[in-house]
Design goal:
By secondary structure, the chain is α/β, with parallel strands linked by helices. About 45% of the residues lie in helices and about 20% in strands. Strands 3-2-1-4-5 form a five-stranded parallel sheet, sandwiched between helices. The radius of gyration is 16 Å and the shape is globular. The termini are far apart. About 35% of the residues are buried. Bound molecules: adenosine-5'-diphosphate.
Length: about 160
């Protein structure tokens, strides 16, 4: 069985992330979307919230599951017997960081490979940060995030102001 791990912060999950997860699900027997449990400084949502939004967003993809993890991504991938780490590429600017991370990960875990999947054109401008910025300014985020994320985003931003 070929297993891939798709790691990220997903603060919150966007339709661009789901596009990558769906593409990966066609290439691998099993895909684990791994929500990085990093200190919530600068993050809007807690790890539990990010994981629960992700679980809801991928439930239409039968061979995709979500989990959270801390520490090194390569260690997480190893523990789960993954062969591949999947990342998404939007623009050339993403490539530089992914390339650097891939080479470092290869040094740490030579048996693991990184596969970068290109996003669809309509998601190439989309990021969690831009979604948060638009929502904070009262803009419409329909289609940019899965529909169940919209009310959570709104209430989180209101809570922040309260
Ligand atoms: P990280 O903090 O690990 O970059 P993100 O949640 O921002 O976490 O992104 C996770 C992965 O998804 C990264 O590989 C990123 O390049 C990719 N990604 C983010 N937004 C998009 C998008 N709109 N289309 C395709 N891939 C994306």
């Amino acid at each position: 069985m070929r297993l891939a791990v798709y790691p990220g912060t997903f603060d919150p999950v966007t339709t661009g992330h789901i596009d990558i997860a769906a593409r990966a699900s066609k290439l691998f027997d099993q895909v684990v979307v791994a929500v990085y449990d990093r200190p919530s400084k600068n993050l809007l949502f807690t790890t539990e919230e990010r994981l629960s939004m992700m679980r809801e967003a991928i439930k239409h993809l039968p061979n995709v599951t979500a989990d959270s993890y801390g520490g090194l991504t390569v260690e997480y991938a190893r523990r789960h017997g993954a062969e591949v780490i999947v990342r998404g590429l939007r623009m050339v600017s993403d490539f530089e960081l992914e390339f650097q991370m891939a080479l470092m990960n290869r040094k740490l875990a030579p048996e693991l490979d990184l596969i970068c999947l290109m996003t669809s054109l309509e998601y190439s401008f989309l990021s969690s940060s831009i979604v948060k910025e638009i929502a904070a300014l009262g803009g419409c985020v329909d289609g940019l995030v899965p529909s169940h994320v919209i009310p959570l985003l709104k209430s989180k931003l209101t809570e922040g102001r309260g």
